[in-house]
Amino acid sequence: MTMMNKKHLLLLLFVSLAGIALAQGDDHGIWFGASVKHDITKKLDVELFGSVRTFKNVTKVDQSLMEGSAGYSFNKYLSVAGSYRFIYSLEDDDQFHYRHRVSLDVKGNLPAGRFSFSARARFQRTELTYIEEFGDATAKYYGRLRFKAAWDIPSFPLTPYVYYEPFVPMFTGAQFEIDRNRFAAGATLKISAKSSVETEFIFQRDFNKKSISDIQILSINYSLKF
What we know:
- The chain is mainly β.
- The protein has a single domain, classed as Porin (Beta Barrel).
- The protein is 9% helix and 65% strand.
- It is built from one helix and eleven strands.
- It has an eleven-stranded mixed beta barrel with strand order 1-2-3-4-5-6-7-8-9-10-11.
- The longest helix is centred in the first third of the chain and has 20 residues, at 3-22.
- The protein is globular and about 55 Å long.
């Protein structure tokens, strides 16, 4: 089998497994996103990202958002970033209300030949404007830790990857617990030196107060650098 046929087989297998995963679960959604990134210096960059996200088997918009961020790379192994996200979210009254979120990221990257392994620690704070219960008036804090592995295939524009990310509520007074797990398989398709398309198949499990809910998500994002 030639190298190109092996790559096509790998891509077909990836799409097939993702399709099987999306056929399972309680709900399905699609996330559409686009970002523009600019390198101010070799170490400092800024980025603007927007997204629309659906749920209820892709029949309703869950939220739309706009995010601005700035990142600084100390070297090829370590970087930090800060962001502000403005969210327009569908709440329990079936109306859209604003949310405000700020995040701080610390990311470590370890190249290993054609593979790269990374870990991103994110601390985020979210404020709600829709107050349904007494605790909703208090900002929500989360810690998130994403573990990612990517494969750079020689002479091939597609870079597949997988990652796992748990969500941990912070400052609640309770013991350590995970109330959301996110598993994903994706690939980045390089269109040109400055643009790419990233597709992810995400399985997300939420541990609610009285039940467990699952959602399968197809995420499509276009990125442009200048």
